[in-house]
């Protein structure tokens, strides 16, 4: 049976009634399109479907670009100034300092933590694969740093050190529900956006910015989650994924900003704007996820105030 691709006509929308259907359909398509396969009879039909999907995801990314509305004149084109601007997103970018994460550390129960992790695990596009797709034909210095980052993601050749299986190990321990319908469409959209940036070469520098934003902003959130899991009695060996990223991504972010962002912009200042857009696209999607998660948790004013007090206490 030929798959129904009518969903691909809604790619220019990022909000409204059709957005959930679009992202769930694209998410299903992404799960199959990236799997290795063998030649088969209807490969021409497959190429047609791939063309429709790419048009749809490109239309979606362009709609988000219009929404976040980053003017080129607001993004520094000199390499040092650009990296300084980029690093300011750690504190001031969309979704940063969200009260959800101190609440996860200090207040949520195990079932709430499990629901949160189901969203995170199911929306995970695979950082290692995204880096591999992004680095194709990149300039030498940036390519080498991406290779070092990828090698760390792959456990430096040790299966036990691979980051992806660490997360899967935690998911098995907590018996997380992997049914797609349990995952809110905002989390699916985040994964879809990352895949769209990484595999469409017109967005290659956007992907560089998005991946850099992950490395730079993940440590604080990962630390909150790791401490929350520990509070809830999860064994240290099972929460290693979050504990590791709370530390290692600080080093990764420093190297990424110096060896990837700085060199790319120094070589061609025109790259600064798409890198900036990519970072904000990633943070914008993350912010939408956090808002939806708080809505699911009925995160009322008391919860928000309590989480802020806990955050201030932890920084004192």
Q: Helices and strands, in N-to-C order?
A: HHHHHHHHHHHHH
What's the story with the biggest beta sheet? none
Instruction: Report the span from N to C terminus.
Output: 61 Å
Number of alpha- plus pi-helical segments:
13
Counted up, domains total: 1
Task: Provide the residue-averaged pLDDT.
Answer: 90
CATH architecture: Up-down Bundle
What fraction strand?
A: under 5%
CATH class categorisation: Mainly Alpha
Structural class estimated from helices and strands? mainly alpha
What is the CATH topology classification name? Heme Oxygenase, Chain A
Beta-strand segment tally:
0
What portion of residues is helical? 55-70%
Poorly predicted tracts of residues:
none
Give the full name of the CATH homologous superfamily.
Heme oxygenase-like
Shape: globular
Describe the structure.
The model has no long low-confidence stretch (mean pLDDT 90). The chain is built from 13 helices and no strands. The protein starts with 18 loop residues before the first helix and ends with a helix. The chain has one domain (65-315): Heme Oxygenase, Chain A (Up-down Bundle). Helices cover 70% and strands 0% of the residues. The protein has 316 residues and is mainly α.
